[in-house]
Inverse folding.
C-alpha cells in the first residue's frame, strides 16, 4: 500500500520534473529567447518579491473573495431552483428548454454585455462566476433528486413520514453525492471563469495581475500568476474533496459511485 | 378475539393495453388482533398487491379496508422482500428511523438497543448496510418494523432472498419474537412449509382470489402437518 502510494506520487512528478529540467537547461544554454521564456531563477525571484511585498496575496484574497461570494450565490439559486423543479415536475417543461439554451452560451461571450449592463464593478465579475457555475450545480442536484430510488421513498410512506420529512430524510440524503459532485465541478469552473472575467474588466485579482504584466512586458509575473492559478485551483479541489469525502463514501453509498459516472457539467 | 382488520370485497384492477386485468378479485378477509396469518400462492397470484393496498401504498379499485375502532393501528409497518435499508445510515440509525425525531433521544436509543439485542445485531450496530450480509440486513429491516409503534406488521416474503440456513434460523426467531409480543402479523410467502411453520392460519391466494383458508392446529403431530401441507399444495394446484 505504502509503496504503491509513493510510486504513484513519483509517477505524478516525473513529467513536471522533465519539463522543469528542459526549462532550466534551455535557459542555461540560451536556447530560448529570455523575453518569451524567462529563466526559472528569474521567475523564482519575482515570485519571492511579489510574496514579500504582499502583492500576490492581495490579488489572491480578492480573487478568493469573488469565488466565494459568486459560488455562494450560485449554490443558493441553482440548488433552490433544482429542488423547486424536481418537486413540481410540471414546471420543468416551461423552464428547462430556456435553461438548455443558456447553457450553451459561454459566460466569457457575455462579458461585453455584462459590462454594459452592470458596469466594470464587482457585479459583472460575480455574474460571470454565477453563469459559469450555475449549470453543474443545478443539473447535478436535479438529477440527484430525480434519480432517487422510489423504493426507498416508499419506506418513508410505510412509516408515515410527511412529504416534507420524506424529502429531508430520504430524497435529499440520497441526492447528496450528486449534489457534492456538482459543487465540486462548479467550484473548478468558478475559479477558471473568474480569472477570465478579471482578464477583461478588473483592477485587482490574479487575472488582473496577469493582464497588467502583459502590458508591462513581464513574462516572469505572468508565469507566477499562471502557476498560482493552477496551484490554488488544485488546492480548492483537494480541500473540497477532503471536506466531502465522508459523505461520498458513507456506507459505501452506491449512488456516489453511479453519480461519479454520469455527472453533468 | 376482536378483529383488528376487516377487508370486504376488495378488488384491484390494472389497465393493461386498454383491458382491465384483475390482480385481486373480491377479497374478503378478517384478521383477529394478535394473530399470525400467512398468505401463500404462486407468483403473480396477487399477494404483494394485497399487502400494498392494506399498507396504503396502492389504492383499491373497489372494496373496503376497515381498521376496527379502538385498535391502536394507524398505519401498519411493512417489511419488504428486499431489506430496503437506507444506505447512508448505520444499522442502528436504520432501526431508529421510524421514530427519529418523534421520541426523546434517550428513550429512542434504549428501544433501539433492545431491538439490536433481540435480533442479534448488537455487534453490527455501527455498520452500514453495504457492509453486512443479506440475512443481517433483513434482521435490521425487521427491527425497523418492530420498533414502529403499530400493532399490525405486514411482511412480503421477507425471507425470500435468504439462503436455507439463514432462512430456517430467522423463521425460528420470528416465531419466538411474535409469541412474546402482541403484534398482529400478515406474512406473505410462496413457501408452503414456511406458511405452516409460522402461521396460525394459512390463506391460499390464486389469481387474485382466496381459494381456501386452513387453520394450523397448535399441537399438531408431524403426520398432521404433512397432511395439511399436502392439502394446501393440492388446493394451490387445483
Ligand atoms: N403496477 C402494476 N401494473 C400492472 N400490473 C401489475 C402491477 N403490479 C402487479 N401487477 C400484476 O398483478 C398480478 C399480481 O402481482 P403481485 O401482487 O405482485 O403477485 P405476487 O406478489 O403474488 O407474486 C401480477 O399478474 C402482476 O403482473
Ligand atoms: Mg410478490
Amino acid at each position: 500500500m505504502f509503496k504503491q502510494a509513493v510510486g504513484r506520487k513519483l509517477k505524478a512528478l516525473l513529467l513536471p520534473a522533465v519539463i522543469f529540467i528542459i526549462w532550466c537547461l534551455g535557459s542555461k544554454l540560451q536556447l530560448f529567447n529570455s523575453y518569451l521564456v524567462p529563466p526559472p531563477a528569474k521567475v523564482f525571484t519575482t515570485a519571492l518579491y511579489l510574496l514579500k511585498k504582499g502583492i500576490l496575496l492581495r490579488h489572491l484574497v480578492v480573487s478568493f473573495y469573488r469565488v466565494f461570494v459568486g459560488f455562494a450565490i450560485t449554490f443558493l439559486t441553482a440548488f433552490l431552483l433544482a429542488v423547486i423543479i424536481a418537486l413540481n415536475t410540471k414546471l420543468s417543461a416551461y423552464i428547462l428548454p430556456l435553461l438548455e439554451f443558456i447553457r450553451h452560451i459561454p459566460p466569457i461571450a457575455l462579458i461585453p454585455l455584462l459590462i454594459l449592463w452592470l458596469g466594470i464593478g464587482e457585479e459583472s465579475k460575480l455574474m460571470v462566476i454565477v453563469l459559469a457555475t450555475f449549470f453543474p450545480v443545478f443539473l447535478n442536484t436535479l438529477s440527484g433528486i430525480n434519480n432517487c430510488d422510489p423504493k426507498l421513498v416508499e419506506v418513508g410512506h410505510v412509516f408515515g413520514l410527511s412529504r416534507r420529512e420524506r424529502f429531508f430524510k430520504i430524497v435529499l440524503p440520497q441526492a447528496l453525492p450528486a449534489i457534492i459532485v456538482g459543487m465540486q465541478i462548479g467550484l473548478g469552473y468558478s475559479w477558471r471563469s473568474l480569472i477570465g472575467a478579471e482578464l477583461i474588466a478588473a483592477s485587482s485579482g490574479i487575472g488582473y495581475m496577469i493582464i497588467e504584466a502583459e502590458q508591462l512586458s513581464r513574462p516572469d509575473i505572468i508565469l507566477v500568476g499562471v502557476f498560482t492559478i493552477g496551484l490554488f485551483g488544485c488546492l480548492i479541489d483537494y480541500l473540497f474533496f477532503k471536506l466531502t469525502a465522508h459523505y461520498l463514501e458513507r456506507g459505501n453509498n452506491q449512488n456516489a459511485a453511479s453519480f461519479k459516472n454520469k455527472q453533468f457539467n | 378475539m376482536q378483529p383488528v382488520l376487516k377487508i370486504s370485497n376488495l378488488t384491484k384492477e390494472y389497465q393493461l393495453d386498454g383491458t382491465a386485468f384483475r390482480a385481486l378479485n373480491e377479497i374478503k378477509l378478517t384478521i383477529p388482533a394478535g394473530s399470525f396469518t400467512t398468505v401463500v400462492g404462486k407468483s403473480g397470484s396477487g399477494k404483494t398487491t394485497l399487502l400494498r393496498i392494506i399498507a396504503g401504498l396502492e389504492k383499491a379499485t373497489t372494496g373496503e379496508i376497515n381498521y376496527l375502532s379502538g385498535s391502536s393501528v394507524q398505519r401498519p409497518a411493512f417489511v419488504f422482500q428486499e431489506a430496503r435499508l437506507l444506505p447512508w445510515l448505520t444499522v442502528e440509525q436504520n432501526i431508529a428511523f421510524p421514530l427519529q425525531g418523534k421520541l426523546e433521544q434517550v428513550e429512542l436509543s434504549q428501544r433501539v438497543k433492545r431491538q439490536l439485542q433481540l435480533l442479534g445485531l448488537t455487534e453490527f450496530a455501527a455498520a452500514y448496510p453495504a457492509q453486512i450480509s443479506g440475512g443481517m440486513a433483513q434482521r435490521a429491516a425487521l427491527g425497523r418494523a418492530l420498533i414502529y409503534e403499530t400493532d399490525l406488521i405486514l411482511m412480503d416474503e421477507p425471507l425470500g432472498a435468504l439462503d436455507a440456513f439463514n432462512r430456517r434460523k430467522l423463521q425460528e426467531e420470528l416465531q419466538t419474537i411474535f409469541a412474546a409480543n402482541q403484534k398482529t402479523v400478515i406474512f406473505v410467502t410462496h413457501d408452503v412449509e414456511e406458511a405452516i411453520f409460522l402461521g396460525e392460519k394459512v390463506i391460499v391466494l390464486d389469481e387474485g382470489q382466496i381459494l381456501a383458508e386452513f387453520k394450523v392446529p397448535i399441537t399438531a403431530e408431524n403426520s398432521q402437518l404433512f397432511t395439511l401441507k399436502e392439502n394446501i399444495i393440492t388446493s394451490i394446484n387445483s
Notes: The interface with chain A takes residues 55-57, 74-75, 77-78, 80, 82, 84, 86-90, 97-98, 100, 128-131, 144, 148 of chain B (CB under 8 Å).
